[in-house]
Amino acid sequence: MAALKASKKRKAVTRDVEEEEAGVFSGDELNNGDLDGALSDNAHDLSSDEDDSDSEIELVDDFSDSEDDVEELDSDEIPSDGEDEGVAKKKKSGTAVDLKEFSKDNGSSSEEEEEQLNYRIEKDANGNDRYIYDEINPDDNSDYSDIEENANTIGNIPLTFYDQYPHIGYDINGKKIMRPAKGEALDALLDSIEIPKGWTGLTDPSTGKPLELSQDELELLRKVQMNEIPEDGYNPYEPLLEWFTTEKEIMPLSAAPEPKRRFVPSKHEAKRVMKIVKAIREGRILPYKPPTEQDEEDKDLIKYDLWADEAERPDHPMHIPAPKLPPPGYEESYHPPPEYLPDNKERKAWEEADPEDREQEFLPRDFGSLRKVPGYETFVKEKFERCLDLYLAPRVRRSKLNIDPESLLPKLPSPEELKPFPTACAAVFRGHKGRVRSLAVDPTGIWLATGGDDGTVRVWELLTGRQLWSVKLADDEPVNVVRWRPGKDAVVLAAAAGDDIFLAVPPIADPETEQASLDLLDAGWGYAASKPATRAVDEEKKSTPPQWIRPSAALTDSGVCAVIPLRHIAKSISWHRRGDYFVTVCSGASTPASVAISIHTVSKHLTQYPFRRRIKGGGPPQTAHFHPSKPILFVANQRTIRAYDLSRQLLVKIVQPGARWISSFDIHPTSSTAAGGDNIIVGSYDRRLLWHDLELSQRPYKTLRYHRKAIRAVKFHPGGRYPLFADASDDGSLQIFHGNVTGDMLSNATIVPLKVLKGHKITGELGVLDIDWHPREAWCVSAGADGTCRLWM
Amino acid sequence: MDNTQSSTANSLQAAQRQVRVQLTSQQEDIALPDSTGPILVPTGLRRYALSTLVNNLLGNDKPIPFEFLINGAFLRTSIDEYLTANGISAETTLEIEYVRALIPPLHIASYEHDDWVSSVDVLSASSASSIPQGQERILSGSYDGLLRVWNTSSQVVATSPSQTEGGHASSIKAAKFVSSNSIVSAGLDRTVRLWKYSESEDGFSGKIAPQLELYGHKSGINSLDVHAPSNRILSASADHSIGFWSTRKSDAPAVPENLLPSAASRTSKRRKLNTSVSVSQRGPLALLSAHTAPVSAAIFDAKDSTVGYSTSWDHSLRTWDLVTASLVDTRTTSHSLLSLEHLPDHHLLATGTSARHITLIDPRASATTISAMTLRGHTNAVVTLARDPSSTYGLISGSHDGTCRIWDLRATKTDKGAAVGDSVYSISRKSLEEEGKANSKRVGGEGVKVFSVCWDPQVGIVSAGEDKRIQINRGDGVLSSS
């Protein structure tokens, strides 16, 4: 406060000085300035003087003044406000002066009262009344009281009259008032004085020489003067190094915990607590729930405490005390040692494990302090379980099999180990117009025969894809199937086109074999010629077996040797392994059941219908094959495959693959020869490939659903050299499988999918129509609806 | 900017690194003196720099371009990159073998045919020394049953007579020059035919006249081999037998009657056409039958004409003593073998398989392993093989995938305990390039299958195939000679 007042006073002084200077130079404002100066200079004196006077006006004035003083003493206000106050004060004192003057000029009526008051009556030596008047104080009311000695007395004339003189007038004593120095003149004077660099005008007390300061020292002085940091390169705002607060020492000097004396209680918290305390006191907060009626009612309930009067009982066989729970270990601590804390892996394993498999029911967790430990969520459950344990209560335990599902999968050999099998397209046979419906590799493995929608049968060189022979069997009907006669002694190709079966000898063999083939086919003519008379008498039925006829001259020239007019479209030809018989199946729905399946004897040119009646159940017959070693004929209709013993003329077996519509089937070539039973693969139009072990069941041993569309053909690798089989599907792909049949009866066949061969284009919803294997190599050929055949090796 | 800088920095750094190399060559004319020890070279060097280095060391006036083999692989990067890629320390001494650089087998010419060309052979100074430079003849056998003799300016000098005039009744599968005036051919008509070849003085026209018909096979003949000095022919047939024939009428025995075409009585009208020209008919000296599947190739031993080798679809390679016509040895592989070539300097037989690779087999009885090396790269059956005339390490193969591949037996690496080679060059068919599908791959080599390849020092690499043309590629300098 005191300092503030001092600064205020100092401020007032400086202002006075300024005003005095102004007063000196400008005559116009002289009075006002003087007045101001006098007023502000000794405001207190003035007011204290006036305190003595009795006039009311003075009193009023005084009051205002005193208020000012109070304000001046007590207020903490900033100096700018103080200045304002000063101004206001001047105004007030100004008015006070005016009022006094006014009262003097016009105060004639109250003159006597004043005079009575202005004198006092004393007794003089004579004892007479003596009027002693107060001294007349001329002070303010005098016009001349304040005339300065050196005021200009030139009167009301323009100062310009003195322009050519060095003075500007005369004071009251008649002395010249000299013209005050102007700024320009001062500057000119200062300029005329040459000041040496670093001149201070001071004398060095130690040397006595003039004190000269260097530029640096001046700079230093300037900085000191400006309250700046005098030293260069000192950064007052360097980042704080928190040595003792945030830095965690590895090896602290003392590991003592933070002493409590450092605890600074929070004022805010204290406030809140006080608030709550107050609220509780006032009853706004109820710390306890008021007891409800429910609770009161509960008092009536009788509660039994099982253990209320439980006493320590001695050890006795009839009394088994409850087993004690093991004391808690480190891992149950709220702040366990770090080695008890689970790492991420353990945590994950625990979380993934079945709750029953967990070794402990909780995961050790670390909390900084006990108050941070949350409630144990399974507390109730755990206590309940403990109770159940104590009662020896039986509980249902989930029986769990600890079996690795991977181990249940059959161990299949990898395809790499099962080589060779066809993997890539080695040749494309292009030439057929329209679909290629059927194909067959000849028994020597050099040639390939194909038959297609264009009515032609073609023979190709297998390896190079060169077409060697072609014959057009029918103009407007497709060749449905081509099959070579097995055996290397003759080259005979059977082809079904339209209603007829053609037997041809392509000119690919040497003269000797060709002659043998021709002889084989020609031998039957004589036999057939001797027979028909008797047969015609025997059989008067409408299903008379057809007579074999010689082909037209053009066909004879091309190599066709015999034609069997079947009168129905044959869709399947299958040769007996000896090459003397083949079976054809006319699968058309309109074909009478009795003539659908026919067996042809090449040596006798004889055609027989072995089945008189329709096969019950399963729709019309689809395809038929001879068993590779036994005299058994397998006939497939739409849903079942029946095996007939040809020698005893008996139905041996019915196989039910479960397929809706069987498209083809094949019999494993080593069936029944290398012990074991017969194995059959069945392809169906409902996309299934089924493996049957006939010894095992009538039902399929394996069902393979790998194709997206109907399976058209299935084939085992002939000869049994490679345990391979393949299927062809309308989705344009072939699939190659490994299907190993073991000799002993105990082990089942292993079936491994090996390769999907893609390449045939799907044309008109049809993909691959037929498939055949090379007789010796692991090569296969496929006939596609896109008009090409492909060799895969 | 930064990358280039850093890479240059790297290369600078690499250039400062040095590695000790031992430069060797198996060719004596370009070998460094034995005293040359390991040389310290910067690892930043590439083939060209190394080549310059070797030329400097040899003091060659005319620099020879060299290729460098490190551990059986040609150096295609800088040494540094090679070391990094193979994880070899720069501290070790690197064994670098250098060979003469190769020139790619550029396409020279194509001779167009009417039908697939199944076989090709070249008559040049290397096979008959009387042939002057520029007078080489190329023989082609085609699926249309005709033989054609071409000169080097792609003109047909002579064509064999058609079927009616004593020619082949069916496709020709193999044809070879026996001498400059004699040709042998065989095909699907089961006969081996010997032709007399004569040229006019100017060399622009010639005549192929039937000389001898050799009967004995019961099925198509796949390949022929000729040993001219002893006038012997070997033929491999699909009837599982190998025919051993003499080119001289006087040597050859008579034909077994049942094999003559007249034996077949069917369609006598067709057969009669054949009788307009009468040619002497002879039988085989011996029919070697031990194979159980079609024989794909039969060749003479390159050094000993009394030894023959044959490969068959029955997976076996058999060695024959031709004097006694007896089987000496059988080596069974796991795939059908489709072609055969003898590499006498290495005592190896190269055989192409249906499993798309070439197996090198040591036929000697002392050899313990069947397969000495496997050359992988083809994508279809390998049906023809030929030696490099200038290098004992060179081999060319033709495959049904439509490419010929040149192999260097030195460029091998060991894979799973067996030596596996990679091809040096692959020659694709020009016909594909002309169709603008040079890089396209035909499924199953459709339309571009190579059926025959022949490598002649004068003419080059001659290959024939399903694209109905003979394709000639530059053959000299393709492989480094030794």
Automatic annotation (TrEMBL), chain A:
Keywords: Nucleus, Repeat, Ribosome biogenesis, rRNA processing, WD repeat. It comes from the Eukaryota. SMART domains: BOP1NT (SM01035), WD40 (SM00320). Residues 1-116, 324-343 are annotated as: Disordered. WD repeats lie at residues 429-470, 768-793. Residues 48-85 have a biased composition (Acidic residues). The keyword Nucleus applies. It is found in: Nucleus, Nucleolus; Nucleus, Nucleoplasm. Its main location: nucleus. Residues 324-340 have a biased composition (Pro residues). Residues 1-12 have a biased composition (Basic residues). Residues 162-422 form the BOP1 N-terminal domain. HAMAP family: BOP1 (MF_03027). Component of the NOP7 complex, which is required for maturation of the 25S and 5.8S ribosomal RNAs and formation of the 60S ribosome. Component of the NOP7 complex, composed of ERB1, NOP7 and YTM1. Within the NOP7 complex ERB1 appears to interact directly with NOP7 and YTM1. The NOP7 complex also associates with the 66S pre-ribosome. Belongs to the WD repeat BOP1/ERB1 family. This is Ribosome biogenesis protein ERB1. It comes from Aspergillus keveii.
UniProtKB/TrEMBL annotation, chain B:
WD repeats lie at residues 138-160, 165-205, 214-255, 288-330, 375-417. It is found in: Nucleus, Nucleolus; Nucleus, Nucleoplasm. Gene3D superfamilies: YVTN repeat-like/Quinoprotein amine dehydrogenase. SMART domains: WD40 (SM00320). Keywords: Nucleus, Repeat, Ribosome biogenesis, rRNA processing, WD repeat. PROSITE patterns: WD_REPEATS_1, WD_REPEATS_2, WD_REPEATS_REGION. Signal peptide: none annotated. This is Ribosome biogenesis protein YTM1.
